[in-house]
Design brief:
Layout lengths: L10 E3 L1 H10 L4 E4 L3 H6 L2 E2 L9 E2 L14 H11 L7 E5 L4 H12 L4 E5 L18 H5 L3 E2 L2
Parallel strand pairs: 1-6, 2-4, 2-5, 5-6
Antiparallel strand pairs: 3-7
Length: about 150
């Protein structure tokens, strides 16, 4: 990480590590930054088995794909309402790990000290047939999810 500020560092974690953190840490949260269309048509992580729900805040709007300039403010409001503290673990997820890393970095800059990027995302990478959801990510790993 070189000279990166350790207070704003974001690490990559796999879905199993995210699930373990969500299960074992009462105030840990999963933040799904995909679009409403993705939540509706692809599905959302189901945290019901651990007594939680995913926090759904779009990083980019659909269909124009522009970054929501109020993302940090909107997410901070959601987290505050849930009683989340700056030192609680936040696991960020998107389709395959890119948007969630950007979102996690913004929240780390905003003062949240334990931001983690779920590197393989909800659907994971493309397989050899160019389909997602079969070789990695939340769904392919068999973690609980709901169809919107």
């Amino acid at each position: 990480m070189g000279d990166q500020n350790p207070d704003t560092a974001v690490d990559d974690v796999d879905v199993a590590t995210a699930w373990e953190g969500l299960t074992s840490k009462p105030r840990a949260q999963l933040v799904d930054v995909r679009t409403r269309a993705e939540w509706t048509y692809v599905g959302i992580p189901d945290l019901g088995p651990v007594g939680k729900r995913a926090v759904l805040v779009e990083w980019q709007t659909f269909p124009d794909q522009s970054v929501d300039l109020r993302f940090a403010e909107r997410l901070a409001g959601e987290l505050k309402a849930l009683g989340v503290q700056l030192e609680d673990d936040l696991f960020f997820i998107c389709r395959s790990g890119s948007r969630s890393m950007a979102a996690a970095m913004v929240m780390a800059e905003a003062g949240y000290r334990r931001c983690h990027n779920v590197a393989s995302g909800f659907e994971g990478p493309l397989d050899d047939k160019r389909h997602r959801g079969t070789v990695g990510g939340w769904k392919a790993t068999g973690l609980p999810w709901l169809q919107g």
